[in-house]
Amino acid sequence: VQMKMLPFDNKNEFQVIIDMPEGTALEETGRVAQEISGYLRTVPEVESCQYYAGTNAPINFNGLVRHYYLRHGDNMADIQVNLIDKGLRSDQSHDIAKRVREGVQEIGRRYGANAKIVEIPPGPPVLSTLVAEIYGPTEKERIELARKVKEIFLETPGVVDVDWLVEDDQEVYELVVDQKKAAFRGVSVEQIAQTLRMSVAGMDVGALHRQPDLEQVTINVRLPKADRTSLKDLSNIFVQSQGMGSITSR
User: Fold this and answer.
1) Could you check whether the bond before residue 212 is cis, i.e. omega within 30 degrees of 0?
2) Phi (first) and psi of residue 33, to 5 degrees
3) What CATH number labels 179-248?
4) Of 44, 103, 144, 230, whose CB is crowded by the most CB atoms within 10 A?
């Protein structure tokens, strides 16, 4: 931006906002955030950084205006970057943020992530430097127009960290039980559905009473995240059969 009402402020911090594709597992999001954090720690002016996967970083006034407190999901991560005191470095925080942007975004592109550098503004915060609001009669037309505006932003020199408030399409799988095959193996449709539901979403199966605790602890059974992230994982879940022992759900 050539003309500004307020000059850039020399802060001791900035943030990195990471948006992975919809449906990304929390572990994958955490790995990307960890790799970007590792890169940032190689920058001489960076004193420390902390990443938050699946939830937002501590909210400041800038994050309040930009609604960062709503950032909750397995495909989202925030990195809080702390710089050494401005009296101990020659470059201002804005220059450091510009210098690391390409390295941060290069890591993000390898994983299909949109990684954005967010600085604390010297004046009142806004949603973004440039914001386009799209209005139209139908959602399909609004999204199509928004996609064209987004392309214009991406092709405009000097415009960086382009993003839009539209969720990506996600695949939805419908699991149908072969009732004849299930009956032949001695399991019911309800039993299969309950086992899969417990494995993926979890189920409370009891309560633990411990002394001297006054309140009971709920016992929840659920597969680890790494074992319930794909259809292949679900096909390896065992269901107890009448007379045939444990059989897989495939």
Assistant:
1) yes
2) -60, -40
3) 3.30.2090.10
4) 103
Return the minimum-mean-pLDDT range out of 12-16, 137-141, 154-158, 185-189.
185-189
Give the start-to-end residue ranges of the domains of the chain.
13-126, 128-166, 179-248
Q: In 3-state terms, what secondary structure has residue 84?
A: coil
**Distance separating alpha carbons of residues 19 and 113, to the nearest angstrom:** 6
Residue 165 neighbours by CB distance under 10 Å:
8
Which residues partner with 204 through β-bridges? Answer: 220
User: Tokens in use for 103?
Assistant: 């390295």
Tens-place pLDDT, residues 114-171? 999 999 887 777 888 889 999 989 999 999 999 999 999 999 998 988 988 888 777 7
Rounded Cα–Cα distance for residues 11 and 123 (Å): 12
Classified as helix, coil or strand, 199 is helix
Where do we find the tokens 């074992």? 227
Instruction: Return phi, psi of residue 232, to 5°.
Output: -65, -40
Output the pTM of the full model: 0.71
Measure the CA–CA gap between 179 and 193, rounded to whole angstroms: 12
Which pair of structure tokens corresponds to residue 176?
Answer: 């149908």
Residue 143's alpha-carbon distances to 148, 155, 194, in angstroms, are 9, 18, 38
